[in-house]
Design goal:
binds magnesium ion, 49% helix, eight-stranded mixed barrel, 10 strands, binds ligand C2E, globular, 267 residues, single chain, alpha/beta
């Protein structure tokens, strides 16, 4: 009682906390509406084979701007997850991407869809994706799923089931932001995954000796374990050339192409 009494007023009148909470609630309310009213757009960023600059895939990235209100996914995705909208949001993105792919007149390389952490532990994930592929008459190879390593570290049984079922059905699993999570490498020994995405923070420091050694090490480890490697956030020709020389096959970043509206990519 006394402890609460002394904590409460401080918390309540902290203007910073108050502003954060107001912002959070504002985003939550707008997000519910935006999903209902189809106000969030999808952009696609190319993934490129470093040896010949051919586009070998795309990543779907959400873009939300309504008039004056513009907000980056780095801010609103965590809000979606915290207020239990992560799964609804993922389903919205999945349906939008699938609908565009189904309309496409030309074949497209796989489009990667980011899946929120909680959703990946949900028992309906596999069924939902499986049914959506059937509904839009798409093969499993039309998509891949990106998840962060934090999802794997807890080893939730449903997560493992989802990975196993998804891969058995032909959908590849990419580990996003590899090396940046609060995580142990132990999951790599047990879990069947396909691709490791080297995070931009490592690519940014490739021109430093220690940064280069670290990335070389990650690539060597991935090769030894039969994972493919995709480097994220490549912004310069120097970074691209270093990665290529290290044996990294695929890259993604502003150097090769910024995310573009999905309708301008899928005709
Ligand atoms: P992510 O999945 O790691 O996506 C890569 C982020 O890096 C994207 O930011 C992309 O626009 C940005 N990026 C790519 N190349 C470069 C580069 O060369 N330089 C720089 N500075 N940035 C680059 P974005 O779109 O703001 O998304 C941030 C994060 O929000 C994503 O990180 C992902 O975790 C999440 N996110 C975005 N869209 C979705 C979505 O549709 N569903 C879910 N569940 N998460 C999403
Ligand atoms: Mg991603
Ligand atoms: Mg990433
Ligand atoms: Mg990220």
């Amino acid at each position: 009682m006394t402890r609460n009494n002394s904590d409460l007023p401080v918390r309540f009148y902290n203007p910073n906390q108050q502003a954060k909470m107001t912002r959070f609630l504002d985003i939550e309310e707008r997000l519910r509406l935006a999903l209902q009213e189809d106000k969030i757009d999808i952009h696609l960023q190319p993934k490129v084979a470093l040896r010949n600059d051919q586009v070998v895939g795309y990543e779907a990235l959400a873009r939300w701007q309504e008039g004056e209100f513009a907000i980056s996914p780095a801010e609103f995705i965590p809000v979606a997850e915290a207020c239990g909208l992560g799964r609804d949001f993922d389903r919205y993105v999945i349906k939008k991407v699938f609908a565009a792919l189904a309309r496409s007149k030309t074949p497209l390389p796989p489009v990667a869809i980011n899946i929120t952490a909680q959703h990946f532990g949900h028992p309906n994930l596999f069924e939902f994706i499986h049914e959506a592929l059937q509904e839009f008459e798409l093969p499993a190879s039309a998509i891949v799923l990106e998840i962060t390593e934090g999802v794997l570290v807890d080893r939730v049984p449903t997560t493992l089931e989802n990975i196993t079922n998804l891969r058995a059905s032909g959908i590849k699993i990419h580990i996003d932001d590899f090396g940046t999570g609060y995580s142990s490498l132990g999951y790599l020994m047990d879990l069947p995954i396909d691709v490791i995405k080297i995070d931009k923070i490592f690519v940014d420091r490739l021109e430093e000796e220690r940064g280069r050694h670290l990335v070389e090490g990650i690539i060597a480890m991935a090769k030894a374990m039969d994972f493919e490697v995709i480097a994220e956030g490549i912004e310069t020709a120097i970074q691209k050339d270093l990665l290529k020389a290290m044996g990294c096959c695929v890259g993604q970043g502003y150097f090769h192409g910024k995310p573009q509206p999905m309708f301008s990519v899928i005709m």
